[in-house]
Amino acid sequence: MEMIDASDFKARCLAILDRVRATGERVVVLKRGRPVAELSPPSRAKGDYPQFELKGAVTVIGDITGPVALEESWDSLKR
């Protein structure tokens, strides 16, 4: 991870952004020696919705549209 002064970043902003995109390396921008910003490449290369990154993360087991409990245990059906 590279650290760069804000004044240097200001002078070479577009070149630094291109390098971050090409290499994937993060860059920390410093102001008076303290970090104020961090540049990193986008997590999604396609520009899709962030939820698409979760595809395949969940396994469905059983019926997900049916009732959780049996109808016999529903208080609203008891008379």
Written description of the protein model:
- The chain has 79 residues and is α+β, with helices and mostly antiparallel strands.
- The protein has one domain (2-65): YefM-like domain (YefM-like fold, 3-Layer(aba) Sandwich).
- Helix content is 22%, strand content 19%.
- It has helices spanning 6-11, 13-23, and strands at 2-5, 27-31, 34-39.
- The model has no long low-confidence stretch (mean pLDDT 87).
List the main descriptive attributes of the protein structure presented here.
79 residues, alpha+beta, YefM-like fold, three-stranded mixed β-sheet, 2 helices, 3 strands, elongated
Strand content: 15-25%
Q: Which geometry do the CA atoms define?
A: elongated
Could you tell me the number of beta strands? 3
- Total number of distinct structural domains: 1
Helix percentage: 10-25%
- Gyration radius, to the nearest Å? 25 Å
Helix and strand pattern: EHHEE
CATH superfamily: YefM-like domain
- The DSSP helix count reads 2
Q: Identify low-pLDDT runs.
A: none
CATH fold descriptor: YefM-like fold
Class of secondary structure makeup: alpha+beta
Across the major sheet, the strand order is: 1-2-3
Question: Which architecture does the CATH hierarchy give at level 2?
Answer: 3-Layer(aba) Sandwich
- For the record, the CATH class is Alpha Beta
Summed over residues and divided by their number, the pLDDT gives a mean of 87
